[in-house]
Amino acid sequence: MSDIVLDELDQDLIRLLARDARVSNRRIATDLGVTEGTVRGRIKRLQQDGLLAFTAITGYEIASKTRLAFINVQAEVDRVREVADAIAQVPLINAVLLTMGQFNITAFGLFEELDTLVETASDRILTIEGVHHVETSIAVKTIKYNARMAKITKPGESD
Amino acid sequence: MSQSFSFDATDHAIVEQLRLNGRANNQQIAETLGLTATTVSTRIKRMEDANQLRVVGVSDFSAHGFNVLMKIAIEIDGRRASDVAHELAELPEIFAVHLVTGRYDIDVLVALKEFSELNAFLFDTLSKVRGIRSMTPAVVVDVVKYQFDVAPIEEGQ
């Protein structure tokens, strides 16, 4: 990862838009004392650089039984990347991280039914060639989660 | 929190448009879906007021200078896990805290600017939190996928 230098205006934009992405450029321009064109240009650049993206976050209650689960995977070391790419294709998997530690891949997913989690972990992930061992852990309660910060990857992009 | 709130087909369609482009204005969404701009605006406001929707700018970890990500599985001893979890949630370095089932009690996600901060974070900050029996870290070396558009929404957030 390279060093990214964002000036104060970029940071103000990120902060304002994190609160509400639907505020107009004109309103932001007035609030920050810059022109609308500057706001438009900065937002576009931050998006192009993969530093800012806009999305709609819905509450857990949209599916009240939804639970976040961590699926920790031990995969053959020389196949970690292909295994991780395969896991990223599994439905309901939201995140796939390559890690150094007890496991070399950690996947996150949101599941409405325990059956679906078991099926995902045992039938879909454990059966991927190169996977040795899978352990799941269910988040029974979220104490803190900052959804305003993420790794911005383009859909289908694997790096 | 309103457990009773339910999304209908129109709500879902609007959310889908917002996921494609959170900055689309009401008129654009209305035209795509064959609704009026007023309906779009009313629906969005209703979902937001019920704390079921936030349309936000999500920034990359690197935009904040965070180059080190870690997941730490924590075992608790002699203290309620939820008390420890709430204390951990107050630390700015920790951006996610979950109470979990399984071998460990708490799972946290940590973002640091550089590895050199790890020493102080472990030995000055985390070591002061009572009740932590063991920590099993996993250092994130690459992110293959990271898509979270469902999350707990707190009031006023």
From TrEMBL, chain A:
This protein's name: DNA-binding transcriptional regulator, Lrp family
GO MF, one example: sequence-specific DNA binding
Keyword terms, alphabetized: DNA-binding, Transcription, Transcription regulation
InterPro entries in the record: AsnC-type_HTH_dom, Dimeric_a/b-barrel, Tscrpt_reg_AsnC-like, Tscrpt_reg_AsnC/Lrp_C, WH-like_DNA-bd_sf, WH_DNA-bd_sf
Top-level taxon: Bacteria
Record GO biological process: response to amino acid
Pfam families per UniProt: AsnC_trans_reg, HTH_AsnC-type
GO cellular component, one term: cytosol
Record PROSITE patterns: HTH_ASNC_2
Annotated organism of origin: Novosphingobium mathurense
HTH asnC-type domain mapped to chain residues: 6-66
SMART domains per the UniProt record, alphabetical: HTH_ASNC (SM00344)
TrEMBL record, chain B:
Gene Ontology, cellular component aspect: cytosol
Protein's name according to its UniProt entry: Transcriptional regulator, AsnC family
Keywords of this entry: DNA-binding, Transcription, Transcription regulation
GO biological process: response to amino acid
Molecular function GO terms recorded: sequence-specific DNA binding
PANTHER family associated with the record: LEUCINE-RESPONSIVE REGULATORY PROTEIN, TRANSCRIPTIONAL REGULATOR AZLB
UniProt keyword DNA-binding present: yes
PROSITE patterns per UniProt: HTH_ASNC_2
A Pfam family annotated for this UniProt entry: HTH_24
Family matches, as InterPro entries: AsnC-type_HTH_dom, Dimeric_a/b-barrel, Tscrpt_reg_AsnC-like, Tscrpt_reg_AsnC/Lrp_C, WH-like_DNA-bd_sf, WH_DNA-bd_sf
